[in-house]
Amino acid sequence: MYDTAKDIVLNLVYMVETYGFVLNGARSYYTNRSQPPLLSSMVLDVYGATGDVEFVRKAFPSLLKEHSFWMSEVHNVPIRDKHGQVHNLSRYQARWNKPRPESATIDEELASKINSTADKEKLYHQIASTAESGWDFSSRWMRNSTDMTTLATTYIIPVDLNTFIFKMEQDIAAFAKLVGDNATSEKFLKASKARHIAIDSILWNSEMDQWLDYWLPADGNCQQGGYQWRSDSQNRKIFASNFIPLWLNAHHSGSMQFADAAKSKRVMASLQKSGLLCAAGIATSLTNTTQQWDFPNGWAPVQHLIAEGLLHSGSEEAMKLAEDIATRWVRTNYAAYKATGAMHEKYDVEACGKSGGGGEYKPQTGFGWSNGVVLSFLEEFGWPEHKEIGCSQGA
Questions:
Q1: Which residue in 66, 213, 345, 348 is the catalytic one?
Q2: Rounded to an integer, what distance in angstroms lies between the CA atom of residue 70 and that of residue 91?
Q3: Does the active-site annotation cover 136?
Q4: Of 6, 25, 182, 378, which one's alpha carbon is 20 to 30 angstroms from that of 148?
Q5: Which pTM value belongs to this model?
Q6: Catalytic residue among 66, 107, 132, 136
Q7: CA distance linking residue 301 with residue 304, whole number of Å
């Protein structure tokens, strides 16, 4: 379905041309917040399947425009490391301080606990910014995991967002070379190298062997030349997002591997003892807050990003773990489908065949990314005839 895939991407390209970024949804009230930046990955996948250089040429200016959006003052944060080197990383930050039109009554009810109008607006800004992340909602973004009014997403440098932007910079460098713009290619190769260093300087934690979200000071004061890095500003709680940079192992050219085999092995060992690996897939967090991006929910894109990274980490053990995650995930999707006749947007990873819950709306069936990830896993690993599909079976 190459034409369909191209048209979906070109719809998003149109949004970037019209609004400067990919809207959180194709509705007028989403013009204040983005999606996580994965458009370049979509373009690359279509190009990889079709070899259509004209398609890349058509999308290329929009990718530059989207990158500028994420590099603007609204999203870019300079942080000075312990050696005095300044690094630039990005954060989510919607341009909105009112209730979300799609969830206005829910937002207003949450804000009713707050007295001042200014503080209500600050909460609405945090809610919309969290929605921009795709992880809406999770204890990951809260100062107090039991209190949604403590959302502080704009004070957080997220691991996954910067992983996606690094990938975007690498993609743009490759596309620029493809369309004959060598100067832009060099520029973005340099930018991706700088972001790689920034991610490892500011977000990597060598004690935990994970990349950790970084919290900016609560007063929001930025010293001249950037915030000063502090080790205690890394969020040491365990989330599946701490392992998302492994995904970059699946997308590197030659010597540009994001995490070498030795580091990938350490990250894999950290994942294995993290508590996130459950009977039916990878949990989003270890904390059950009843929010939908917390335990015990598992989400298709998270399984895919991490399994893809493991698969290309360079070790037999990592490949086996990737297949094991895929097997658990396919089984739970299959069992839930047999029981309900539908694919689900999220699954309870503690119980094979059980769809996920929690959050502010009724769980949805369908479901695009669940369908896509199952297809991808089956394409990648197959399903031999002797392999049992039932929940009670071992891998």
A1: 345
A2: 8
A3: yes
A4: 25
A5: 0.97
A6: 136
A7: 5
